[in-house]
Design goal:
InterPro entries: Glyco_hydro/deAcase_b/a-brl, YdjC-like. The chain is built from 13 helices and nine strands. By secondary structure, the protein is of the alpha/beta class. Helix 1 runs parallel beside helix 11, helix 2 crosses helix 4 and helix 4 crosses helix 5.
Length: 286
Amino acid sequence: MAKANERIVALCADDYGLSQGVSVGILKALDAGRLTAVSALVNGSHWPAMGRDLLRHCENADVGLHFNLTLGRPLSPMPKLAPTGAFPAVRQLIGLAMGGKLPMEEIRSEIERQLDRFEAVMERRPDFVDGHQHIHGLPGIREALLDAMAARKLAGRAWVRDAADGPHRIALRRAHIGKALAVRALTSGLRRAAKWRGFAVNDGFSGFSDFDPGKDYAEAFETFLRAPGRRHLIMCHPGHVDDELKALDPVTITREQELAFLLSSRMPEMLERRGLKLGRLSAALR
């Protein structure tokens, strides 16, 4: 239980299911009590098996869908968005979204398929929904995703990640300001749309990184703790590196560095010095 002067923050590991190594690393951090949320990719080959493993480790953490339109392959053909069978790069998706040229019928169907696949394995609905590379907040996608969640009666039961923190808090962290402001601009409107449909959202967001293995992740994590919001959410990307990860994603070595820090004594000591305690966002939003 948090002390009277402690503030609760949530720590979410993204990309569960990306590869065996990433997923095993996240499970280690869960078992150590160093995470309070896990965001799962469900369109890869590891999801059914790794989802069942996650079920055995997530008693004290929220588990959500990491909705994905930019990595790997869709769950069924999307001839307009993914004519080669593979999702487009995030820059291409952003361009389509900002230009109002997204194939929305295909995207709505993919949203349903990914939600269905999550629920089939986890045997429950997601505690929250977010997006790989924050694509869930893009125009068109956010409305379709919120509509799908509302149709499943998730309002009041699931929260939505808002990666658009306030500019004053972004400035106070003095790190990755450009990236944080860019995501804020691209996803502007998500918070209002989610609240209008009855979905809770986090208040405060950090965790942006340039994934530079030459930098000390502990120093980066310290910046994530600056100027926390009332219901603050921090994202992280821990995991082990394996050949599959190397083939899928450029972020490799820093995942090992993040995991090592999360499992070290430095992490809880840093939280304690700042009067912070890890907790589930679903509990804070009740």
